[in-house]
Amino acid sequence: MGTQTLSGSRRAYDRILRALLYLSALLTCALLLFIIGYIFIKGLPHVTWELLSTKPSYIKDSIGILPNIVNTVFIVAVTLVITLPLGVGAAVYLTEYAQNRRLVAAIEFATETLTGIPSIIFGLVGMLFFCNFLSLGKSLLAGALTLVIMTLPTIIRTTQESLKTVPQSYREGALGLGSGKWHMIRTIVLPASIDGIVTGCILAVGRIVGESAALLFTAGMGMTLNDLFTANGFLHSSGATLTVALYVYAKERAEFDVAFGIAAILMLLTLVINLAAKLVGRRLRQN
Amino acid sequence: MTSNDRKVGPIPMDASLPGLKPTAKPAAQAMRTSPKRAVERGMQAVFLLCGLISIGFVLFISVYLILSGIPAIAQIGPTKFLFGTTWASTAAEPQFGILPFILTSIYGTAGAILIGVPVGFLTAVFLAKAAPPRLAAVVRPAIELLAGIPSVVYGLIGMMVLVPAVRELFHLPDGASLFCAILVLAVMILPSIVSVSETALQAVPREYEEASLALGATEIETYFRVSVPAAKSGIAASIVMGIGRAIGEAMAVIMVAGNVANMPSLFSSVRFLTTAVASEMSYAAVGSLQQQALFSIALVLFLFIMLINVILNSLLKRGGDD
Q: What are the residues whose beta carbons fall under 8 Å from the beta carbon of B126, sequence distance 6 or more?
C-alpha cells in the first residue's frame, strides 16, 4: 500500500480480474484444441477404407465398423421418424392451440424434466419397458424408442422457438381469408417455421449420435451386420452404434486404435452437425 | 427463460387478436355440418395428445422407477440400503449398502463444480462482456463444439491421457480414480455453465452498466459489481444445471473412475451412482435381488435429479420474472 492506496488497489483488482478472464477463456479454448488435436492425430491414421467398409472377422483377425455405422444410421432414422411428428405436434399445441395456462406450464415443466433426466435412467426404463415388458429384447428398435423419449424435448423446444417467430399477421391473414385453423397451420405456419424444425432435427441427430448410456442396455453391443430390411431383422436385431462400439473396443477389448478411429469419426460428425445447425440457425435469424 | 416463453407463448393468439374470436365463430358455425369441422376437431385432439405425451413420459418414467425400485429397498431395509457402507452384491452373503455410491456422486459432483464453475463463469464474463467481438465469435462456437462431443470420447481421452498421467504424477498403482473423474466431469460441465451464464449476462440491461461506468467505475469493476449481481439467478441456474449434468454422467465416468465400490477418497478407485447401475446391469440375473437393488440405486439417482430440476426451474422462473 503506497501513497496511491485507492487507485493502486483498484488498478490491481482491474488487472488481476482481466488477466483471469483471458486466462480462463484461453484455458477453455486450449482444452478444446487439445481434445480435437489429440483425437485426430491418434485416430485419423486408423480410419481406413477397410475399417469403414467391413465387419469384424475372427478369421482374418480384423475389425471393421460397417455394422456400427449402419446401426447408427438406422437408429437415427427410426428415432426421427417417430419423434419428429410428436415433437412438432406438441410445439404446435403449445403455441397455437393451448388456452389453459396451467396445462401449458405442466407440459413445459415435463419437457424441462425430460431434458434433465440422465441418459442412464432412460436406458434403464427403456430396458425394463421396451426390452422386457414389450419383449422386443435387446434391439435397435428398443434403442430407437428409448431415444424418442430423450430427443422429444429438443424437437419441442426448437420448433416452439421458431413457431413464435412466425408473424402474427400471417395467421390473421389466413384466418381472415376463411381458412380453418388446421389448414392455416399446415399451409402457413409450419412452412414458415421449417428452418427451426430442421435445426431441431440436426440437434436431435447430434444427441442420438453422441448417446451411449441409454443404448447400452436397450440396443445391446452386437457387432455383426444386421439384415434390417426383413420384419424380424427390423424388430429384433441388436447392435452397437458407433459410440457404444467405441466404449466396447476401448474398455472391454483394449483395441485402442479402433477406438481412436471411431472417436475421430465421431468428432468429424460432431463438427459437421454443429456447423449445419449453425448455418440453418443463421438462415432462421435472417428471415 | 421458460417463464418468459410461457408469457409470450400462447397469449398473442387471444391478446393481440381480440377481433378474431367473433369472426371465427360464425365461420365455425357455418362448418358445423361439414366434414371440415370434424377434421378441425380431430386435429386439435391430435395436437393436444402430442402435447400431453411429454407429461405422460415423465409420469411413466417416475412410476416405473418407483415401482421397480421400492421392492429391493423394502427387502434390504431403507437405512441399511442408504447408509450401509459395504456393497457386495455377488458375495455369498450379499450386502447392499449404497452409501459409497451416494458419497462418491456427491464428492465427484462437488469437485467438478469447484473446478468447472470458476473457469466457466470467468469464460462467460469474458464472452459476454470483455472479449473483442471477433475473438468472441471464435470462442463461442468452440464452446458449443465442446458441448457436442460425445461423452465416450471424453471418457476415451480421460482413459488414455489423464489416467496414466495421474498414475505417473502421484506414483499410484492405478491412475483410475475419483480425481480423474472429477477432472473429466469438470470439462464436461464447462459448456453448459458458460452458455447459460453468458445468456444471463447478455440480458443485463445496458443502462445498468452505463450508469456504473458514468460514475467512474472501471469496465472490470462494472462487470463484476454490476453485471454479475444483476445476472445472479441465471448464473446460479447454470451451476445447478452443471450439477445435474455431473451427477447424471455415466459413460465418461465409468471409463476413468476405476469402478470399485470403495468409500470415496481422492485417489482411490470409486463407483458413482450412475456407474454402479451401469457396471452390473448387464450381468445381473433378471428378477434377482441384485438387479432390483440396481433399480433402487437408479431411483435414488432419479430423486437427486428431480430435486435438482425443481431448484433449476425455480431459479429460471425467478430469472425470468426480474
A: A21, A22, A24, A25, B136, B139
